[in-house]
Amino acid sequence: MQENASGERLEVAAAVLALLADRTRLALLQRLGEGEADVTTLTEACGAARPSVSQHLAKLRLAGLVVTRKDGRRVVYSLRHGHLRRLVDEALNVADHQIGALPPHD
After folding, report:
1. In 3-state terms, what secondary structure has residue 83?
2. Over the stretch 1-56, which tens digit does the pLDDT of each residue have?
3. Cα(first)–Cα(last) distance of the chain, in Å?
4. Domain 3-100, architecture per CATH
5. pTM, whole model, 2 decimals?
6. 70 φ/ψ angles, rounded to the nearest 5 degrees
7. SS (H, E, C) 41-69
8. What residue ranges do the domains of the chain occupy?
């Protein structure tokens, strides 16, 4: 891989991780990892105010991490790809190890 392409890859990865570094966005992505959902469902799942949830979803959509589709008058959100679900799951697994003082493993 060319050095320039590698640099771009690292830059994009850092931007994705920066978006995940917010508790509300992480909760939204965790819920979307279970399947698509509308704003009402996502608001209930993450416990944040609806305007805040909408703003976070807009950031995730603009970053290309979530996609939307219309279902009547509702907008339904889903993860763009499974890699993101696995990334969120792994971040939460690391947290489980930190909280529970679990031994490291390969």
Report:
1. helix
2. 456 778 999 999 999 999 999 999 999 999 999 999 999 999 999 999 999 999 99
3. 27
4. Orthogonal Bundle (1.10)
5. 0.87
6. -90, 135
7. HHHHHHCCCHHHHHHHHHHHHHCCCEEEE
8. 3-100
